[in-house]
Predict the structure.
Amino acid sequence: MEIVELKQEHFEKVKDLLVDLQEFVISIDKYNLNIISNDYREKYFEFMQNDCKKNQGKVFIAIQENNILGMVTGFVQEYDERDRLDYSCPKKGIVAELIVDKNNRANGVGSELLNHIEVYFKSINCEFVQIDVFAYNENAKKFYYKNGYEDRMITLFKQI
């Protein structure tokens, strides 16, 4: 397996991975709030690329024998004046997406991708890495805890 930066030849498979993840999130969303709009595939990919371009971001692909096994996207946190009122605003990398193809899970692909984006963040002097995880995704939470991540903020939610 090799980890490489996203190239145009990977775009369609990466879009497939993004859709697969969103479909999974929809399947575990007990409030049924997550959706896939008609233009999700193209627009979400475009937003992801723009976040990377504007904020020192990268998209890395795990590839083996021309098969894409997974992807990770990360960029540097932007802060505004309001943030600076009550937060020290360290340089922080945000892992926006980490997706492993369902046929390649539990083979170390996710850990390799996570490590690769962490090394990138260190190379540009980030002090922290942040990942938001859908609360109902127990496997993802276990994975991140196993890789040294811990809870910092927890969002509470109630239907009224």
